[in-house]
Specification:
Layout: H1 10-22, H2 25-32, H3 36-50, E1 55-57, E2 62-64, H4 66-95, E3 96-100, H5 103-110, H6 114-120, E4 125-129, E5 144-149, E6 157-169, H7 172-178, E7 191-192, H8 195-204, H9 223-231, E8 236-239, H10 245-249, E9 261-271, H11 279-293, H12 296-305
Parallel strand pairs: 3-4, 3-5, 7-8
Antiparallel strand pairs: 1-2, 5-9, 6-8, 6-9
Helix pairs in contact: 1-2, 1-3, 1-4, 2-3
Length: 317
């Protein structure tokens, strides 16, 4: 069966509904931001497509024909339902901020600070997604991404949040048990983490490759699992002193050596350029960057990495 609406422009029905509801081409033009001539032309085109008159045109006013009455009743009801649905969608979208991020960053940095954002923005509910799938933002309902990388992602604008840095972390008991006095003493430890990162740390600490520890006995696909092993007194892990600053401050973890290595990549806040001025995105961006700037560990690590919190990422090719 042929869809009769396929030959009628939706915009023409919108113009007709407004004119039928107001019974005035002039008032319809004002409501729609169009000229009266444009309204009149759209309605005339609709009448020609339907092959019947919808309005009786008088000198000072218009009225609906019987056919126009029937179409007006249905179109006003349909447009009312559509306006209500669109309003619901827009209001729901504006009331929820959906953030996608990495598991470790979500647990160790974002979750412990989100309360302050929500207190300052009581009209916004926050949904945090830690799916490993890289979102393009928008189509899947996600608004903002906190990502680790170079700051260049096609179709997204990015702002530098914090550097990727790592240093050995362990429990005080593990430090004392191993009697860690120099970086080379770590060759007695059960190391946790990526071999190349440990090699980079030993090199930065001045330990010759021949004197470095054996390869790590445990690696995981995220930093949270590796540092969890260290918290469980299972070894010495490489972790971020920024993300684990709370555990260090509480004495649950210690840094046996101050040597820290900064990665070329870091954590970035990303969003579609076309949505940079959207209120909820702008508020979250400003809050996240201000929060990072207020953390001395972030500022010092950014200096070490030669970065500045809030700097824009390079446009992607």
């Amino acid at each position: 069966m042929i869809d009769v609406l396929s030959r009628i422009p939706v915009d023409a029905l919108r113009v007709f509904e407004t004119a039928a509801r107001l019974l005035s081409f002039t008032r319809a033009a004002e409501a729609l931001g169009m000229s009266q001539a444009a309204v009149s032309w759209r309605i005339r085109d609709l009448e020609q497509r339907l092959d019947r008159a919808l309005f009786v045109r008088g000198t000072r006013h218009v009225s609906l024909t019987p056919e126009g009455e029937r179409l007006a009743t249905a179109s006003i009801e349909a447009m009312t339902l559509l306006r209500r649905a669109v309003a619901d969608v827009v209001e729901a979208d504006q009331g929820v901020l959906a953030v996608t991020t990495l598991q470790t960053l979500a647990t160790q940095w974002l979750a412990t600070r989100l309360g302050a954002f929500q207190l300052a923005n009581p009209d916004l509910a926050v949904r945090v997604d830690t799916s490993p799938t890289l979102s393009s933002l928008g189509a899947d309902g996600l608004d903002v991404a906190l990502r680790f990388g170079s700051g260049r992602w096609p179709g997204l604008e990015s702002r530098f949040l914090m550097p990727g840095v790592f240093t050995p972390l362990c429990t005080p008991a593990m430090r004392d048990r191993l009697d860690l006095k120099t970086p080379a003493d770590l060759k007695r430890a059960h190391l946790v983490g990526e071999p190349d990162e440990w090699a980079a740390w030993f090199a930065a600490a001045g330990v010759a490759p021949a004197d470095a520890a054996p390869p790590p006995r445990l690696t995981a696909d995220n930093q949270a699992m590796e540092v969890a092993a260290a918290l469980g007194d299972q070894g010495v892990a490489l972790g971020s002193p920024i993300l684990y600053g709370r555990e260090i401050k509480r004495g649950l973890l210690v840094r046996p050596f101050e040597q820290t290595v900064a990665l070329a990549e870091g954590y970035w806040l990303c969003y579609p350029p076309a949505r940079r001025l959207t209120s909820k995105i702008a508020r979250f961006r400003d809050w996240a960057l201000d929060t990072a700037r207020a953390d001395p560990a972030v500022v010092e690590s950014a200096r070490l990495a030669g970065r500045e919190v809030g700097e824009a990422g390079a446009p992607s090719a």
